[in-house]
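stage 2 :: seqdesign
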């Protein structure tokens, strides 16, 4: 078992920050604003943009440069930075045990560990119908989100909340949690308790809407984002929809036979109800109001979506 470097007692002074996407920017900015000396930011490599030679830095790299923080793409550079602590937020890479033996690290994880360990905790919590999630500040160890817990904050999942909205709510709560714990000094850790549940990265095939499923589950999938179906042989993204509890405007009631068919101008039947499309994006076009789309597409009552005929 890896012998982790002990967490510093009291307020750490010099930090190395590990993060890559936009959601990792607010914690970095908050640490600097609260007087912490971030001596290095370690982030993902620049991404090539389009077919040209131009590259785009990660959001964390761009923020670090704006804050005059040195940047590296090599994890081992953190060992030469003279830091007291590493702070990890959505870094996107596993950090090897040899590094953790020399530099203690804490990680913000957006779930109630050990539930939803892994790459997609926000999406998996939403898909599962969880009513509460949270943010755990934990000591990082070589296992995937297995480290002991420093602090935890609960966050309710509101009705109708999208994954994007929930993610940024967790970022806000997690940023406050991180700063609070580092300002006052990291307290003792406690082992994770409970049955681990893995939050695997979503496969693209999971975003295809199966209209024979329950309306409530399809609604969750749409709120995760990137949900799609097909209509007349072309892909149609469903960006926003609402569950219809009752028929609207004299439309027929949905049932198993009408699942995956239009029962109204913008209403599609599911196994046990229906979804009213609100915002859609036809293949090759921009997002548009579903009513405007239906005026042009003119879906027929009983016409199938989802590859059926």
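stage 2 :: out
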């Amino acid at each position: 078992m890896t012998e982790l470097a002990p967490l510093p007692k009291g307020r750490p002074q010099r930090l190395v920050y590990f993060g890559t996407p936009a959601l990792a920017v607010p914690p970095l900015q908050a640490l600097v604003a609260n007087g912490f000396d971030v001596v290095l930011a370690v982030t993902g490599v620049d991404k090539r943009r389009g077919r040209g030679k131009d590259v785009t830095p990660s959001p964390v790299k761009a923020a670090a440069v704006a804050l005059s923080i040195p940047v590296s793409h090599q994890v081992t550079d953190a060992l030469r930075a003279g830091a007291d602590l590493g702070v990890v937020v959505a870094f996107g890479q596993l950090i090897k045990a040899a590094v953790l033996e020399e530099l203690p690290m804490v990680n913000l994880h957006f779930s109630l560990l050990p539930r939803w360990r892994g790459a997609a905790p926000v999406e998996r919590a939403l898909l599962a119908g969880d009513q509460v999630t949270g943010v755990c500040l934990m000591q990082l160890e070589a296992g995937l989100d297995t480290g002991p817990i420093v602090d935890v904050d609960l966050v309710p999942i509101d009705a109708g909340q999208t994954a994007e909205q929930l993610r940024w709510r967790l970022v806000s709560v997690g940023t406050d949690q991180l700063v609070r714990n580092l300002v006052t000094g990291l307290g003792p850790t406690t082992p994770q308790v409970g049955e681990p549940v893995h939050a695997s990265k979503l496969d693209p095939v999971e975003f295809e809407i199966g209209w024979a499923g329950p309306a409530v589950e399809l609604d969750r999938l749409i709120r995760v984002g990137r949900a799609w179906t097909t209509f007349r042989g072309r892909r149609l993204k469903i960006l926003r929809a609402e569950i219809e509890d009752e028929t609207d405007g004299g439309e027929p009631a949905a049932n198993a036979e009408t699942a995956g068919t239009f029962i109204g101008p913008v209403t599609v039947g599911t196994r046990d109800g229906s979804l009213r499309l609100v915002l859609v994006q036809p293949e090759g076009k921009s997002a548009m109001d579903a009513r405007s789309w239906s005026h042009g597409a003119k879906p027929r009552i009983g016409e199938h979506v989802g590859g059926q005929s």
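stage 3 :: structure notes
- The mean pLDDT is 94.
- The first helix runs from residue 25 to 33.
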